[in-house]
């Protein structure tokens, strides 16, 4: 062979600026395609077959570690220098065309391992950066370990040693050596890294914002389908997911690719054994994160590769937000979520992912409330091995997660029952915030504030009501262990009761509206649709508010409360809204029952109304007033008793038993949340507050009652003008210019009869419409199954008879 001396073959140290930490430190050797240093001797002129085979084997030993030989060289298009964004392809090799065919067939099979070696080396150099996460870093480490201690050592210590010492070492022996030691491992790793690089390229080219939107819409459509199909997912309200797509394949994505490769090679014990060992080694850091989350509730995931994401950290280096009374509920609901990008299939089955999420959240809650750094020594589970060294799979994973989930719920039971006396706090909410069976409230505040509640809503009314309520709170300060009452704050809401119910009624959301939202193409389009719907709703509410005939303070009265942490993890803002809706409804019923009670004293105990000297027509008119009052009082009392006794008391008695009988062994925090939520939802449904049409009719009935009571309580002077003896007796209290006029008295009586008939007919019609609506609600509403007190209400309304 002829050596050419004019080829510049000098080794330089490369600068690390702009390169990966584990990248190549020296420049590449000159390529034969452009700077051939050796002119090869033609193989067809070598007559000795053994000499030709030895030359080919020597070239193959170079090729196997990624170098060129004399007769086997890089393809002319191959350039070893790669940028950080260039694809890792590896070299294709050209084999001398005049090589013996038997040698060439072996050489073609062996040279592919040279390409595999280059690809694996470049892959481990590029993807060892911290930005790709600890799982990828460990995979690159395992690849380097394989190349260093299995692949290269096999070539140097065995193949080269045999080539130098054994004259009979052949190309066939080299192939057998590769097959026995490392060929299948190299091929499996090569296939795996090729799949990873394809995924990396796919993510680099995709519109991640659009992909995030598509994932979000899929979840929305699935939830809509479940709601329409009455398929209740008990964790849907709590199980929040992060649908964002990461720019890099990290963590669970890599592990799932290895698992998919294992499943692809089922039946080949050798391949599966190697891949299983690789999976166990690569998943060590993921196991550590899972173990830390399930045993201590701490998320040690600096590179965002674990299945649980911390949304309170905008970057991997930012510290978590501090809890306070304003953000604690939001952080509980949204801080920790399931990262959908990269969740392993084993975790995505059933409710395993949800249990993993809730276990860590409950432990984090326990640590924050008890000011602890770790919960490792509290209620340890002897069946569990600490720390976790191998990622469990299938049934083993289910049992492992269930054990930690049970321990977390036991700690939550200790925290809420032993530490915070949760049953007593919920009883306080029922008594002081829902205002059920609370005679002190109605005696010391409500009855004293009837005059202000009858006035129109304004600043002075609010101040007087708040002052009276503060006096009521002060009168209860002597009672110990009160948590709820001191936190309550009186408000006159801008929206009246009817408008609030209409906003959140099931009738206000139609399938067409949902269909339009589900057709949105991106987040911007979805935002525009939502804003358009809000604008239409505000215009509709504005028009309706102009038509409102009354704006009395009782229709705006409500009590606000900021639930302290950690009670707000159970009594969420949704629960507070439902509490307030039922609370305002009860106050409205109590108010009109009280107004009717005061009116009864007026028309039955007043000397003027009981005057025996009225003529027959006036007596008949007064009797009709009393009958109408009786029917109104009967209806309002029926609604109050039904809501208080049939709905609230019966529902609370069932929930109270469940709360008091809960033990640490059977306590399940999400189920406890659902029980409270179901109780309030059932209260809303059975109280008819989910049907805006029925609430609208009921409010119209209260308006009729209010106008009737206001009408009859203002008739003393009018009644005096209908009888000459009453007029003479009370003449001193009347204007001196007013004289008794019998003709005017008859005309006034006709006006009173006409007005009373109008109120009578209006009340009767609205009452009949309400009864018909309740009947329809029973047959077509959402309360057709189970114990349904609305059926009893429908029967009672049917039994009430109104005379025309």
Task: Summarize, please.
This protein has 804 residues and is mainly alpha-helical.
Please report the distance between the alpha carbons of the first and last residues: 124 Å
Stretches with pLDDT under 50, minimum 5 residues: 228-238, 315-319, 536-541, 544-549
Radius of gyration, rounded?
A: 41 Å
Number of domains: 3
| Mean pLDDT figure | 84
Task: Summarize the biggest pleated sheet.
Answer: 3 strands, mixed
Percent of sequence in beta strands: under 5%
Q: How many DSSP helices?
A: 27
Shape, principal axes of CA atoms: elongated
List key phrases describing it:
804 residues, mainly alpha, three-stranded mixed beta sheet, 60% helix
Q: What would your notes on this structure say?
A:
- Helices cover 60% and strands 3% of the residues.
- It has 804 residues and is mostly helical.
- It has three domains: 2-202, no CATH class; 207-244 and 283-419, no CATH class; 573-804, no CATH class.
- Strands 5-7-6 form a three-stranded mixed beta sheet.
- Helix 3 packs antiparallel against helix 5 (183-205), helix 7 (252-264) runs antiparallel to helix 8 and helix 20 (573-605) packs parallel to helix 22 (669-686).
- The longest helix is centred in the C-terminal third of the chain and has 45 residues, at 616-660.
- The radius of gyration is 41 Å and the shape is elongated.
- The termini are far apart.
């Amino acid at each position: 062979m002829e050596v050419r001396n004019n080829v510049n073959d000098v080794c330089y140290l490369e600068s690390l600026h702009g390169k990966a930490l584990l990248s190549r430190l020296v420049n590449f050797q000159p390529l034969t395609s452009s700077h051939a240093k050796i002119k090869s001797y033609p193989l067809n002129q070598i007559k000795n077959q053994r000499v030709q085979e030895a030359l080919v084997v020597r070239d193959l030993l170079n090729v196997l570690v990624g170098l060129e030989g004399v007769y086997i060289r890089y393809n002319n298009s191959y350039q070893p220098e790669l940028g950080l964004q260039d694809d890792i392809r590896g070299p294709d090799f050209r084999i001398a065309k005049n090589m013996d065919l038997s040698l060439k067939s072996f050489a073609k099979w062996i040279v592919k391992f040279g390409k595999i070696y280059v690809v694996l080396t470049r892959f481990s150099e590029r993807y060892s950066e911290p930005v790709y996460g600890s799982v990828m870093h460990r995979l690159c480490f395992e690849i380097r370990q394989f190349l260093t201690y299995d692949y290269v050592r096999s070539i140097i210590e065995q193949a080269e040693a045999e080539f130098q010492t054994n004259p009979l070492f052949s190309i066939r022996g080299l192939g057998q050596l590769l097959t026995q030691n490392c060929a299948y491992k190299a091929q499996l790793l090569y296939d795996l890294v090729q799949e990873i690089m394809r995924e990396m390229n796919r993510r680099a080219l995709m519109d991640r914002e659009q992909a995030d939107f598509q994932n979000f819409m899929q979840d929305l459509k699935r939830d809509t389908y479940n709601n329409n199909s009455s398929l209740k997912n008990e964790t849907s309200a709590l199980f929040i997911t992060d649908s964002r797509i990461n720019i890099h394949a990290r963590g669970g994505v890599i592990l799932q690719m290895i698992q998919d490769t294992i499943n692809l090679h089922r039946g080949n014990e050798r391949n599966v054994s190697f891949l299983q060992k690789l999976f166990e080694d690569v998943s060590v850091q993921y196991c550590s994160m899972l173990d830390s989350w399930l045993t201590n509730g701490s998320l040690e995931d600096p590179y965002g590769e674990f299945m649980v994401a911390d949304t309170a950290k905008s970057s991997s280096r930012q510290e978590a937000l501090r809890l306070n009374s304003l953000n604690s509920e939001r952080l509980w609901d949204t801080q920790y979520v399931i990262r959908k990008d990269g969740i392993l299939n084993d975790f995505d089955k059933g409710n395993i992912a949800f249990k993993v999420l809730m276990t860590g959240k409950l432990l984090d809650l326990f640590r924050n409330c008890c000011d602890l750094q770790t919960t490792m020594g509290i209620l340890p589970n002897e069946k569990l091995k600490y720390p976790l060294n191998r990622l469990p799979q299938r049934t083993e994973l289910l049992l492992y997660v269930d054990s930690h989930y049970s321990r977390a719920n036991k700690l939550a039971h200790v925290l809420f029952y032993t530490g915070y006396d949760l049953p007593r706090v919920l009883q306080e909410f029922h008594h002081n915030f829902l205002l059920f069976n609370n005679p002190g409230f109605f005696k010391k505040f409500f009855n004293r504030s009837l005059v202000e509640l009858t006035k129109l809503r304004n600043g002075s009314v609010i101040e007087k009501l708040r002052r009276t309520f503060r006096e009521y709170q002060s009168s209860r300060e002597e009672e110990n262990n009160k948590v709820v009452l001191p936190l309550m704050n009186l408000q006159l809401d801008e929206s009246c009761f009817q408008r609030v119910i209409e906003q959140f009624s099931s009738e206000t959301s139609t399938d067409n509206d949902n269909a339009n939202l589900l057709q949105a193409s991106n987040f911007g389009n979805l935002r525009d649709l939502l804003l358009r719907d809000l604008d239409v709703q505000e215009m509709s509410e504005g028009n309706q508010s102009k038509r409102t005939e009354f704006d009395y303070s009782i229709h705006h009265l409500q009590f606000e409360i900021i639930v302290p942490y950690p009670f707000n993890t159970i009594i969420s803002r949704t629960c507070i809204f439902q509490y307030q809706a039922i609370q305002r409804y009860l106050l409205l019923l109590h108010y009109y029952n009280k107004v009717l009670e005061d009116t009864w004293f007026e028309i039955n105990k007043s000397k003027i109304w009981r005057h025996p000297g009225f003529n027959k027509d006036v007596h008949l008119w007064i009797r009709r007033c009393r009958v109408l009052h009786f029917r109104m009082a009967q209806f309002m009392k029926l609604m109050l008793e039904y809501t208080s006794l049939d709905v609230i008391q019966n529902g609370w008695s069932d929930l109270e038993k469940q709360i008091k009988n809960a033990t640490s062994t059977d306590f399940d925090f999400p189920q406890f949340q659902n029980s409270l939520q179901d109780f309030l939802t059932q209260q809303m449904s059975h109280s008819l507050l989910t049907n805006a049409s029925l609430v609208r009719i009921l409010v119209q009935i209260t308006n009729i009652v209010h106008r009737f009571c206001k009408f009859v309580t203002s008739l003393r002077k009018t009644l005096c003008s209908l009888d000459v003896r009453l007029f003479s007796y009370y003449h001193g209290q009347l204007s001196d210019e007013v004289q008794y006029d019998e003709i005017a008295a008859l005309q006034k009586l006709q006006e009173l009869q006409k007005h009373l008939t109008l109120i009578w007919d209006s009340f009767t019609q609205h009452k009949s419409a309400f009864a018909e609506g309740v009947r329809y609600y029973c047959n077509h509403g959402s309360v057709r199954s189970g114990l349904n007190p609305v059926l009893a209400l429908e029967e009672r309304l049917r039994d009430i008879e109104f005379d025309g």
